[in-house]
Amino acid sequence: MSRSDAGFFPLLLVMKEFLRSNRMTIEEFDLFLNHFLHQFPYVPDEIPNWITKSCWQSLDLLEELPVFKGLKQHMQFNQALYQEYFTLAPVLLEPSPWDDETELTLAQRALLWLFTRPKDMSKVFSDLVMYELGSEMITTFEHHPLTISEKAPSLIITDSEDQLDAVYDVQRVATAQGKVVKVLCMLNDSMQGEAEHMIQQGIKYGYWILLSQCQHIKYWSGLLLDLMLEVSEIVANPRESLPKKVHPSFKLILVSSLSAKMTLLMS
């Protein structure tokens, strides 16, 4: 997904409206943000000749969404239909062959293109923005951008009732400072293992790790809390005195509602 300010902000506005109007789930939003972070081991399979191996394997992730269950098998049985559909220029208002099984939303069709034909995504995202922002469904709100200086502490906890704005702010600031930011939506307690791994990678390589939707975590694991406490011990130190094992560019940003933020601080 392109993260330039010109294209990314309108796309986030559209996704925010989709989430607000229940036309996109938080799981679908997570795939939009993080599809490029996943790597898939090669598994021999009968792959249609119109799709790349990497895209075919990535469809396993898309099939984790209930609406796309059985997609790959349907593609194998209807190869001519899918080849014709994905060879033509993308038009989100046109139903896909999968729509014969389950009627897809615009966001779900965009996800289908994202995983199947990623090279066409700039056109798909542009159309998605045009279709939605051309309607009267988008409402604008006053937004106070989150600012993060290069000398900011390694651990940042912020409350935001509109967390898409916080994600965009971090992406914008990281891009301006030439940093790599990785986002994980904390959908439930089971996400904490992946969060631990991402934080460890951030400490080693200097990534900015953003954990959003932290209000969904009911019980923070001892391992993750210990890791956060280890990071918090760095906060009081000047950047030049960081331990050698912590990359100087590393930041951990937690975004949650105000009540959940207090729960985390009390933990």
Fold and architecture overview:
The protein is of the alpha/beta class and 267 residues long. It has 11 helices and 4 strands. It has a 4-stranded parallel beta sheet with strand order 1-4-3-2, with helices on both faces. β2, α9 (192-205) and β3 form a beta-alpha-beta unit. α3 (53-62) runs antiparallel to α6 (106-116) and α6 runs antiparallel to α7. The longest helix is centred in the first third of the chain and has 16 residues, at 5-20. The radius of gyration is 20 Å and the shape is elongated. The protein starts with a helix and ends with a helix.
Search tags:
single chain; 267 residues; alpha/beta; 4-stranded parallel sheet; 11 helices; 46% helix; 8% strand; elongated
Derived from helix and strand composition plus strand pairing, the structural class reads: alpha/beta
| Ends distance | 35 Å
The percentage helix is 40-55%
Q: Give the topology string: H per helix, E per strand.
A: HHHHHHHEHEHEHEH
**Residues in β-strands, percent:** 5-15%
Low-confidence stretches: 1-7, 135-142, 259-267
The coarse silhouette is: elongated
